């Protein structure tokens, strides 16, 4: 399991840090929460889910499976930087549309 904090949403209440000080911390000087572990130990899974459910602004997201994330990431890669150029080249070869008429 992994856990992330949406730092744009965090309301700096510190509730997650009080609940799990080894997993969350508040950064200086603004108090926005940060996650201080790469993966959540099994023994803390329930506590992290609880902390996420108690965040008043729903800024904590629990990612249940590291393996699932990797699979999703590889199945849905970011678009290649060359992708717009490829489309532009196709448009020039076929200016009238999909059937080739102008
Ligand atoms: S409980 Fe939510 S709002 Fe409060 S510090 Fe943690 S992430 Fe931020």
Automatic annotation (TrEMBL):
<comment type="function">
    <text>Ferredoxins are iron-sulfur proteins that transfer electrons in a wide variety of metabolic reactions.</text>
</comment>
<keyword id="KW-0249">Electron transport</keyword>
<keyword id="KW-0411">Iron-sulfur</keyword>
<dbReference type="InterPro" id="IPR001080">
    <property type="entry name" value="3Fe4S_ferredoxin"/>
</dbReference>
<dbReference type="GO" id="GO:0005506">
    <property type="term" value="F:iron ion binding"/>
</dbReference>
<dbReference type="GO" id="GO:0051536">
    <property type="term" value="F:iron-sulfur cluster binding"/>
</dbReference>
<feature type="region of interest" description="Disordered">
    <location>
        <begin position="67"/>
        <end position="102"/>
    </location>
</feature>
<dbReference type="Pfam" id="PF13459">
    <property type="entry name" value="Fer4_15"/>
</dbReference>
<keyword id="KW-0813">Transport</keyword>
<dbReference type="GO" id="GO:0009055">
    <property type="term" value="F:electron transfer activity"/>
</dbReference>
<dbReference type="InterPro" id="IPR051269">
    <property type="entry name" value="Fe-S_cluster_ET"/>
</dbReference>
<keyword id="KW-0479">Metal-binding</keyword>
<keyword id="KW-0408">Iron</keyword>
<protein>
    <recommendedName>
        <fullName>Ferredoxin</fullName>
    </recommendedName>
</protein>
């Amino acid at each position: 399991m992994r856990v992330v904090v949406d730092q744009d949403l965090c309301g700096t209440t510190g509730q997650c840090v009080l609940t799990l000080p080894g997993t969350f911390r508040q950064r200086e000087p603004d108090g926005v929460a940060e996650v201080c572990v790469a993966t959540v130990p099994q023994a803390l899974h329930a506590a992290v889910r609880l902390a996420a459910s108690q965040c008043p602004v729903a800024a904590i997201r629990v990612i249940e499976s590291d393996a699932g994330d990797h699979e999703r990431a590889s199945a849905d890669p970011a678009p290649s930087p060359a992708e717009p150029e490829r489309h532009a080249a196709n448009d020039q070869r076929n200016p009238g549309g999909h059937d080739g008429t102008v």
